[in-house]
Amino acid sequence: MKRVLFIVNPRSGKGSIKYHILDILDTFSKKGIDVTVHITQERLDACRTAMEEGGNYDEIVLSGGDGTLDEVVSGLMKGGHDTPVGYIPAGSTNDFASSLKLPVRMGDAAKIAVSGASRRFDVGAFNDQYFIYIAAFGLFTDVAYQTSQEAKNVLGHMAYLLEGAKRLFNIRSYHMKVRTKEREFEGDFAYGMITNSESVGGFKKITGNDVCLDDGLFEVILIYQPANVIEFQEIITSLMTGQLDSKFIETFKADELELEGTEEVPWTLDGEDGGTHKTVKITNQKQAIPIMIKKERK
Ligand SMILES: Nc1ncnc2c1ncn2[C@@H]1O[C@H](COP(=O)(O)OP(=O)(O)OP(=O)(O)O)[C@@H](O)[C@H]1O
Which ranges carry the DAGKc domain (predicted)? Predict the structure, then answer.
Protein backbone atom coordinates (compact mmCIF):
# COMPACT_ATOMS: atom_id res chain seq x y z
CA MET A 1 0.00 0.00 0.00
CA LYS A 2 1.39 3.41 -1.03
CA ARG A 3 1.96 5.61 2.02
CA VAL A 4 1.31 9.32 1.47
CA LEU A 5 1.81 12.23 3.86
CA PHE A 6 -0.68 14.97 2.94
CA ILE A 7 0.52 18.38 4.21
CA VAL A 8 -2.24 21.00 4.15
CA ASN A 9 -1.79 24.75 4.69
CA PRO A 10 -5.28 25.81 5.81
CA ARG A 11 -4.40 29.50 5.30
CA SER A 12 -3.20 29.44 1.67
CA GLY A 13 -5.16 31.50 -0.81
CA LYS A 14 -8.75 31.91 0.32
CA GLY A 15 -8.60 28.81 2.51
CA SER A 16 -10.81 27.04 -0.03
CA ILE A 17 -9.13 23.68 0.63
CA LYS A 18 -11.83 23.18 3.29
CA TYR A 19 -14.44 22.79 0.54
CA HIS A 20 -12.37 20.16 -1.31
CA ILE A 21 -10.55 18.13 1.30
CA LEU A 22 -13.17 15.36 1.58
CA ASP A 23 -13.19 14.79 -2.19
CA ILE A 24 -9.39 14.79 -2.25
CA LEU A 25 -9.19 12.23 0.58
CA ASP A 26 -11.83 10.16 -1.22
CA THR A 27 -9.69 10.23 -4.39
CA PHE A 28 -6.72 8.98 -2.37
CA SER A 29 -8.81 6.22 -0.71
CA LYS A 30 -10.17 5.02 -4.05
CA LYS A 31 -6.56 4.64 -5.26
CA GLY A 32 -5.90 2.46 -2.20
CA ILE A 33 -3.55 4.98 -0.63
CA ASP A 34 -2.71 4.94 3.07
CA VAL A 35 -2.84 8.68 3.83
CA THR A 36 -1.70 10.62 6.87
CA VAL A 37 -2.93 14.24 7.05
CA HIS A 38 -0.87 17.02 8.62
CA ILE A 39 -2.51 20.46 8.90
CA THR A 40 0.22 23.12 9.23
CA GLN A 41 -0.03 25.14 12.43
CA GLU A 42 2.38 27.97 11.65
CA ARG A 43 5.08 29.21 9.31
CA LEU A 44 7.88 26.62 8.76
CA ASP A 45 5.73 23.76 10.07
CA ALA A 46 5.59 22.27 6.54
CA CYS A 47 9.39 22.54 6.23
CA ARG A 48 10.01 20.86 9.57
CA THR A 49 7.48 18.10 8.87
CA ALA A 50 8.93 17.33 5.42
CA MET A 51 12.46 17.28 6.86
CA GLU A 52 11.60 14.98 9.76
CA GLU A 53 8.99 12.74 8.11
CA GLY A 54 9.93 12.87 4.41
CA GLY A 55 11.84 9.61 4.53
CA ASN A 56 8.96 7.65 6.09
CA TYR A 57 6.54 7.96 3.16
CA ASP A 58 6.40 6.97 -0.51
CA GLU A 59 5.21 10.45 -1.45
CA ILE A 60 4.41 13.85 0.07
CA VAL A 61 1.35 15.62 -1.30
CA LEU A 62 0.82 19.24 -0.33
CA SER A 63 -2.01 21.69 -0.60
CA GLY A 64 -0.87 25.31 -0.46
CA GLY A 65 0.72 28.08 -2.45
CA ASP A 66 4.25 28.78 -3.60
CA GLY A 67 5.31 29.40 0.02
CA THR A 68 4.14 25.97 1.20
CA LEU A 69 5.74 24.26 -1.81
CA ASP A 70 8.99 26.07 -0.96
CA GLU A 71 8.78 24.81 2.61
CA VAL A 72 8.15 21.18 1.61
CA VAL A 73 10.94 21.16 -0.99
CA SER A 74 13.34 22.90 1.43
CA GLY A 75 12.48 20.35 4.14
CA LEU A 76 13.08 17.39 1.81
CA MET A 77 16.39 18.85 0.60
CA LYS A 78 17.58 19.57 4.16
CA GLY A 79 16.54 16.07 5.28
CA GLY A 80 18.27 14.48 2.26
CA HIS A 81 15.03 12.77 1.15
CA ASP A 82 14.34 11.91 -2.49
CA THR A 83 10.60 11.53 -1.90
CA PRO A 84 8.31 12.52 -4.82
CA VAL A 85 6.15 15.60 -4.29
CA GLY A 86 2.50 15.89 -5.35
CA TYR A 87 1.23 19.46 -5.50
CA ILE A 88 -2.37 20.65 -5.17
CA PRO A 89 -2.11 24.43 -5.79
CA ALA A 90 -4.23 26.44 -3.38
CA GLY A 91 -2.36 29.75 -3.10
CA SER A 92 -3.22 33.17 -4.43
CA THR A 93 -0.55 33.33 -7.16
CA ASN A 94 0.66 29.74 -7.73
CA ASP A 95 3.49 30.84 -10.05
CA PHE A 96 5.29 27.53 -10.03
CA ALA A 97 2.08 25.51 -10.44
CA SER A 98 1.47 27.42 -13.64
CA SER A 99 5.02 26.60 -14.85
CA LEU A 100 4.29 22.94 -14.06
CA LYS A 101 1.00 23.22 -16.01
CA LEU A 102 -0.99 21.81 -13.09
CA PRO A 103 -4.78 22.16 -13.28
CA VAL A 104 -6.51 24.90 -11.29
CA ARG A 105 -9.28 22.58 -10.05
CA MET A 106 -8.11 20.95 -6.84
CA GLY A 107 -9.83 17.63 -7.58
CA ASP A 108 -7.97 17.35 -10.91
CA ALA A 109 -4.66 18.33 -9.31
CA ALA A 110 -5.21 15.70 -6.60
CA LYS A 111 -5.56 12.97 -9.24
CA ILE A 112 -2.29 14.05 -10.90
CA ALA A 113 -0.61 14.24 -7.47
CA VAL A 114 -1.12 10.52 -6.92
CA SER A 115 -1.48 9.07 -10.44
CA GLY A 116 0.55 11.43 -12.62
CA ALA A 117 4.11 11.02 -13.84
CA SER A 118 7.08 11.81 -11.65
CA ARG A 119 9.61 14.15 -13.29
CA ARG A 120 12.73 15.66 -11.77
CA PHE A 121 13.07 19.46 -11.50
CA ASP A 122 15.90 21.81 -10.57
CA VAL A 123 16.13 23.34 -7.09
CA GLY A 124 18.09 26.47 -6.17
CA ALA A 125 20.55 26.39 -3.27
CA PHE A 126 20.93 29.84 -1.69
CA ASN A 127 23.70 29.82 0.94
CA ASP A 128 22.26 27.20 3.34
CA GLN A 129 18.63 27.68 2.20
CA TYR A 130 16.68 26.48 -0.86
CA PHE A 131 14.20 27.88 -3.36
CA ILE A 132 12.12 26.23 -6.02
CA TYR A 133 11.47 29.04 -8.49
CA ILE A 134 12.71 32.50 -7.46
CA ALA A 135 15.29 34.25 -5.30
CA ALA A 136 14.97 38.03 -5.56
CA PHE A 137 16.05 41.30 -3.99
CA GLY A 138 15.11 44.96 -4.31
CA LEU A 139 12.03 46.65 -5.71
CA PHE A 140 8.77 44.82 -4.95
CA THR A 141 10.46 41.84 -3.32
CA ASP A 142 9.26 42.58 0.17
CA VAL A 143 5.77 43.07 -1.23
CA ALA A 144 4.80 39.41 -1.15
CA TYR A 145 5.36 38.89 2.55
CA GLN A 146 4.42 42.38 3.70
CA THR A 147 1.05 42.21 1.98
CA SER A 148 -1.26 40.80 4.63
CA GLN A 149 -2.82 37.39 4.07
CA GLU A 150 -6.27 38.97 4.46
CA ALA A 151 -5.51 41.55 1.74
CA LYS A 152 -4.12 38.83 -0.53
CA ASN A 153 -7.21 36.70 -0.03
CA VAL A 154 -9.63 39.50 -0.77
CA LEU A 155 -7.75 41.25 -3.53
CA GLY A 156 -5.49 38.59 -5.02
CA HIS A 157 -3.16 40.13 -7.57
CA MET A 158 -4.42 43.61 -6.98
CA ALA A 159 -3.01 43.50 -3.45
CA TYR A 160 0.50 42.91 -4.76
CA LEU A 161 0.14 45.64 -7.35
CA LEU A 162 -1.26 48.19 -4.92
CA GLU A 163 1.43 47.45 -2.37
CA GLY A 164 4.05 47.66 -5.15
CA ALA A 165 2.71 50.94 -6.51
CA LYS A 166 3.03 52.49 -3.06
CA ARG A 167 6.74 51.79 -3.24
CA LEU A 168 7.48 53.22 -6.67
CA PHE A 169 8.26 56.54 -5.08
CA ASN A 170 10.80 54.92 -2.86
CA ILE A 171 13.19 53.13 -5.22
CA ARG A 172 16.57 52.35 -3.76
CA SER A 173 19.49 50.35 -5.05
CA TYR A 174 22.16 47.95 -3.78
CA HIS A 175 25.75 48.04 -4.93
CA MET A 176 26.83 44.52 -5.81
CA LYS A 177 29.64 42.57 -7.41
CA VAL A 178 28.29 39.75 -9.56
CA ARG A 179 30.41 36.71 -10.34
CA THR A 180 29.54 33.84 -12.66
CA LYS A 181 31.80 31.24 -14.28
CA GLU A 182 31.95 33.41 -17.40
CA ARG A 183 32.10 37.00 -16.15
CA GLU A 184 32.39 39.45 -13.29
CA PHE A 185 30.79 42.89 -13.15
CA GLU A 186 29.42 45.33 -10.62
CA GLY A 187 26.76 48.02 -10.39
CA ASP A 188 23.94 49.64 -8.47
CA PHE A 189 20.95 47.36 -8.85
CA ALA A 190 17.35 48.26 -8.02
CA TYR A 191 16.14 44.71 -8.54
CA GLY A 192 17.44 41.24 -9.18
CA MET A 193 15.81 37.88 -9.73
CA ILE A 194 17.29 34.44 -10.15
CA THR A 195 14.51 32.24 -11.43
CA ASN A 196 13.49 28.81 -12.62
CA SER A 197 9.92 29.58 -13.70
CA GLU A 198 7.87 30.70 -16.66
CA SER A 199 5.74 32.95 -14.48
CA VAL A 200 6.67 35.45 -11.76
CA GLY A 201 4.08 37.34 -9.69
CA GLY A 202 1.41 36.05 -12.04
CA PHE A 203 3.19 37.51 -15.11
CA LYS A 204 3.84 34.88 -17.75
CA LYS A 205 6.93 34.87 -20.00
CA ILE A 206 8.65 37.58 -17.92
CA THR A 207 11.72 35.34 -17.66
CA GLY A 208 11.97 34.74 -21.43
CA ASN A 209 10.66 32.21 -23.93
CA ASP A 210 13.17 29.41 -23.58
CA VAL A 211 12.79 28.57 -19.91
CA CYS A 212 13.46 24.94 -19.05
CA LEU A 213 12.77 23.77 -15.50
CA ASP A 214 15.24 20.88 -15.53
CA ASP A 215 18.25 22.17 -17.50
CA GLY A 216 20.39 23.00 -14.47
CA LEU A 217 20.32 26.69 -15.40
CA PHE A 218 18.73 29.75 -13.82
CA GLU A 219 17.39 32.71 -15.77
CA VAL A 220 18.98 35.80 -14.18
CA ILE A 221 17.63 39.34 -14.56
CA LEU A 222 19.41 42.27 -12.87
CA ILE A 223 18.07 45.80 -13.25
CA TYR A 224 20.28 48.84 -12.81
CA GLN A 225 18.99 51.73 -10.74
CA PRO A 226 16.96 54.05 -13.02
CA ALA A 227 17.98 57.71 -12.79
CA ASN A 228 14.49 59.08 -13.40
CA VAL A 229 10.87 58.19 -14.12
CA ILE A 230 11.47 57.97 -17.88
CA GLU A 231 14.22 55.36 -17.42
CA PHE A 232 11.95 53.54 -14.97
CA GLN A 233 9.18 53.48 -17.57
CA GLU A 234 11.63 52.13 -20.17
CA ILE A 235 12.57 49.29 -17.84
CA ILE A 236 8.94 48.39 -17.11
CA THR A 237 8.16 48.39 -20.85
CA SER A 238 11.15 46.09 -21.51
CA LEU A 239 9.94 43.66 -18.85
CA MET A 240 6.33 43.70 -19.95
CA THR A 241 7.13 43.17 -23.63
CA GLY A 242 9.91 40.66 -23.00
CA GLN A 243 12.41 42.87 -24.88
CA LEU A 244 15.16 42.51 -22.30
CA ASP A 245 17.89 43.82 -24.60
CA SER A 246 18.25 47.11 -22.71
CA LYS A 247 21.17 49.05 -21.26
CA PHE A 248 19.35 49.01 -17.93
CA ILE A 249 19.02 45.23 -17.76
CA GLU A 250 21.54 42.40 -17.43
CA THR A 251 20.01 39.10 -18.46
CA PHE A 252 21.76 35.77 -18.73
CA LYS A 253 21.58 32.08 -17.80
CA ALA A 254 23.87 30.58 -15.18
CA ASP A 255 24.23 27.40 -13.17
CA GLU A 256 25.88 29.27 -10.32
CA LEU A 257 26.56 32.85 -9.31
CA GLU A 258 27.77 34.89 -6.38
CA LEU A 259 26.47 38.32 -5.43
CA GLU A 260 28.56 40.35 -3.04
CA GLY A 261 26.93 43.47 -1.63
CA THR A 262 28.49 46.34 0.27
CA GLU A 263 25.72 46.04 2.86
CA GLU A 264 23.11 43.55 4.07
CA VAL A 265 20.52 43.01 1.34
CA PRO A 266 16.99 41.71 2.07
CA TRP A 267 16.05 38.74 -0.13
CA THR A 268 12.86 36.80 -0.79
CA LEU A 269 12.82 33.11 -1.63
CA ASP A 270 9.69 31.92 -3.45
CA GLY A 271 7.81 34.99 -2.21
CA GLU A 272 8.68 34.41 1.44
CA ASP A 273 11.17 36.28 3.64
CA GLY A 274 14.65 34.96 2.78
CA GLY A 275 16.54 37.03 5.38
CA THR A 276 19.25 39.65 4.81
CA HIS A 277 22.63 38.72 3.39
CA LYS A 278 25.78 40.58 2.37
CA THR A 279 27.07 37.81 0.14
CA VAL A 280 25.02 35.05 -1.42
CA LYS A 281 26.15 32.02 -3.35
CA ILE A 282 23.43 30.53 -5.51
CA THR A 283 23.87 27.17 -7.20
CA ASN A 284 21.50 25.13 -9.32
CA GLN A 285 20.90 21.63 -7.97
CA LYS A 286 20.04 20.07 -11.30
CA GLN A 287 16.96 17.80 -11.24
CA ALA A 288 17.20 17.48 -7.46
CA ILE A 289 13.51 16.95 -6.71
CA PRO A 290 10.85 14.63 -8.22
CA ILE A 291 7.45 16.33 -8.70
CA MET A 292 4.27 14.70 -10.02
CA ILE A 293 2.94 16.26 -13.23
CA LYS A 294 0.36 15.35 -15.86
CA LYS A 295 1.21 12.24 -17.84
CA GLU A 296 2.13 13.19 -21.38
CA ARG A 297 -0.05 11.72 -24.12
CA LYS A 298 1.70 9.25 -26.39
N1 LIG B 1 -1.60 27.54 10.26
C2 LIG B 1 -0.97 28.58 9.70
N3 LIG B 1 -1.21 29.85 10.13
C4 LIG B 1 -0.59 30.90 9.56
N5 LIG B 1 0.31 30.81 8.55
C6 LIG B 1 0.60 29.59 8.09
C7 LIG B 1 -0.02 28.41 8.62
N8 LIG B 1 0.45 27.33 7.95
C9 LIG B 1 1.34 27.82 7.06
N10 LIG B 1 1.45 29.16 7.12
C11 LIG B 1 2.24 30.09 6.29
O12 LIG B 1 1.40 30.66 5.31
C13 LIG B 1 2.21 31.34 4.36
C14 LIG B 1 1.52 31.45 3.02
O15 LIG B 1 1.47 30.23 2.39
P16 LIG B 1 1.43 30.04 0.82
O17 LIG B 1 2.51 30.81 0.13
O18 LIG B 1 1.40 28.60 0.61
O19 LIG B 1 0.02 30.65 0.43
P20 LIG B 1 -0.32 31.98 -0.38
O21 LIG B 1 0.54 33.11 0.10
O22 LIG B 1 -1.79 32.15 -0.31
O23 LIG B 1 0.06 31.52 -1.84
P24 LIG B 1 1.00 32.16 -2.96
O25 LIG B 1 2.38 32.25 -2.35
O26 LIG B 1 0.96 31.17 -4.09
O27 LIG B 1 0.41 33.47 -3.29
C28 LIG B 1 3.53 30.60 4.39
O29 LIG B 1 4.53 31.48 4.88
C30 LIG B 1 3.30 29.48 5.42
O31 LIG B 1 4.46 29.20 6.18
Answer: 1-130
Distance in Å, CA 8 to ligand 1 centroid: 10
Of 123, 77, 176, 141, the C-alpha closest to 283 is 123
Reported as a single tens digit per residue, the pLDDT across 177-218 is: 999 999 999 999 988 999 998 877 666 666 777 889 999 999
**Lining residues, ligand 1, CB within 6 Å:** 9-13, 40-43, 45, 64-68, 71, 91-94, 152, 271-272
How many angstroms separate the alpha carbon of residue 181 from the centre of ligand 1? 36
ipTM metric: 0.94
CA–CA distance, 82 with 291 (Å, rounded to integer): 10
pLDDT digits (tens, 9 = 90+) for 51-62: 999 999 999 999
* Residue minimizing CA distance to atom 13 of ligand 1: 67
Beta partners for residue 184, in sequence order: 179
Please identify, in words, the CATH class of the domain defined by 3-116: alpha beta
Q: CATH classification of 131-286 is 2.60.200.40, yes or no?
A: yes
The model carries a pTM of: 0.88
The answer to whether residues 137 and 82 touch, using CB atoms and an 8 Å cutoff, is no
**How is the chain split into domains, by residue range?**
3-116, 131-286
Ranges of residues in the chain whose predicted pLDDT is under 50: none
Pocket test for ligand 1, best of 7, 8, 12, 51 (most atoms within 8 A of CB): 12
Please tell me the residue having the least CA distance from ligand 1 atom 3. 42
